[in-house]
């Protein structure tokens, strides 16, 4: 596939730059008598996301309601039956998420990849469906300095896949749709939204290779993404 020639890169936060802390979630479940390892939860993650990445599900839910449907599916795919203990653990974890953001694990490859993307001369923008705590979270995770603009959907009262959030991101960053791509991990939210906004491309980060037949550029990692980009001059 040809290089992606862009000047501005939009990136989703959760599932691309940061991920749920499966260790925290495993420990929270254990405190309520539910035993499941972080590795089991991590393995279930991609399949749970694939379940909610459906046009009907996306069209009938908000980001907040999808998030807790996603956690229900993670437990299901990890073979953890619903119980009073799992419900209690999720309620405690929900409170933590509202205060701090559960998507607090940053893989080792993320910051080096962001540094490489900045070295290419790209304008980097976070475009994320979030709960109003994204800036706090990025400050805490030391991700803020890598970005020119950070957009938390809660602050703008509009969510992906609505193209208006991408249009706001273009206005805030000074980007042009024809030289801007967006990378996310959900086809019906990230790729569909980017296309509706008229961006050059929507790119799917498909680390588990669960989307072999989608009609968009796919990357398996942020390193793959870095290698696929050429600065538009």
Explain what the structure shows.
The structure is a single chain. This protein is α/β, with parallel strands linked by helices and 233 residues long. The chain folds into two domains: 4-17 and 106-231, HAD superfamily/HAD-like (Rossmann fold); 20-104. The protein is 47% helix and 16% strand. The protein is built from eleven helices and ten strands. A six-stranded parallel β-sheet has the order 6-5-2-7-8-9.
Number of helices, counting only DSSP H or I runs of 4 residues or more? 11
How would you sum up the global shape? Answer: globular
The CATH architecture of the largest domain would be: 3-Layer(aba) Sandwich
CATH homologous superfamily title of the largest domain: HAD superfamily/HAD-like
Walk across the major sheet and give the strand order: 6-5-2-7-8-9
Cα-to-Cα separation, first versus last residue: 20 Å
Mean pLDDT: 96
Low-confidence stretches: none
Number of strands: 10
**Overall domain count:** 2
Largest sheet: 6 strands, parallel
Q: Helices and strands: which structural class? A: alpha/beta
Helix content: 40-55%
Stated plainly, the CATH topology of the largest domain is called: Rossmann fold
Q: State the order of secondary-structure elements, H for helix, E for strand.
A: EEEHHHHHEHEHEHHEHEEHE
